[in-house]
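Lecture notes, continued. The same structure-token format from the folding unit now serves as the input rather than the output. Read the line below as a description of shape only.
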């Protein structure tokens, strides 16, 4: 299992990112969460088997159809306390 904390920047709010990411995570069997941040970025925690985490990271480089990703800061993280994938309130 591999957990990653992500901060994704660019045109990533107002494009359906959180719903898109939740769908991708559920399809890949990942645990974690996603939320919008006040600075216009999207923050996420993803956890699961390494191949599924890597697939999610590849998908996040382009995101949903209307998104324009300018950067992703990825750090190792502790796994989430809860099972499943959550949409959290804005930070």
């Amino acid at each position: 299992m591999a957990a990653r904390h992500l901060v994704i920047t660019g045109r990533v709010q107002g494009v359906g990112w959180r719903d898109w990411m939740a769908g991708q995570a559920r399809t890949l069997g990942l645990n974690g969460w996603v939320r919008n941040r006040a600075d216009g970025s999207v923050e996420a925690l993803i956890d699961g088997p390494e191949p599924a985490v890597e697939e999610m990271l590849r998908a996040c480089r382009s995101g949903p159809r209307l998104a324009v990703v300018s950067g992703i800061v990825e750090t190792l993280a502790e796994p989430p306390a809860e099972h499943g994938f959550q949409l959290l309130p804005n930070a």
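Point for the exam: Residues 23 and 58 are 15 Å apart (CA to CA).
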